[in-house]
Amino acid sequence: MTNRSLAGKLPPTFTRRTSTRLAGMLAGLALGAALLAGCSSEGASTDCGLDACTVTFDRGVDARANILGVEARLVETQDDVATIEVAGEQLSLTVGQQAADVGGLAVTLDSVTDSEVKVRIARNGG
To answer: Which of 98, 99, 102, 97 has the alpha carbon at shortest distance from 86?
Structure first.
């Protein structure tokens, strides 16, 4: 048996479609990596998609994160209320409260524990 390449036996549209799809996937991955590379944090961790981020702030430290083009910072927590500063505006949020609107972003307090505060920040409509 001989090992022959399939390239000459496949229809030309197969290889064109495959290369177009591959180029599209690579472009999408590059764009996603560029968007996510814009996220940074100190005393916090971030989990971001294209239109929303979940930020988990560590309590007891100067915790902040740069996400979706703005800075978010944990100011203070007391019981189940957290004061968060997003894009220079302070919000006092409770778990389960409807999202607060700040400069085109919807900010929601997901949870408060003894060690961390979890906040979801999304572009309005996202």
So the answer is: 102
State residue 103's pLDDT score. 87
What is the residue whose two structure tokens read 């495959």? 18
Single out the residue of 58, 74, 60 nearest to residue 107, CA to CA. 74
pTM of the model: 0.67
Characterize 71-80 residue by residue with b for buried, 16 or more Cβ atoms within 10 angstroms of its Cβ, and e for exposed.
Answer: ebbbeebeee
| Spatial CB neighbours of 104, under 8 Å, sequence gap ≥ 6 | 123, 124
State how far the alpha carbon of 61 is from the alpha carbons of 48, 71, 117, 121, in Å: 22, 16, 12, 20
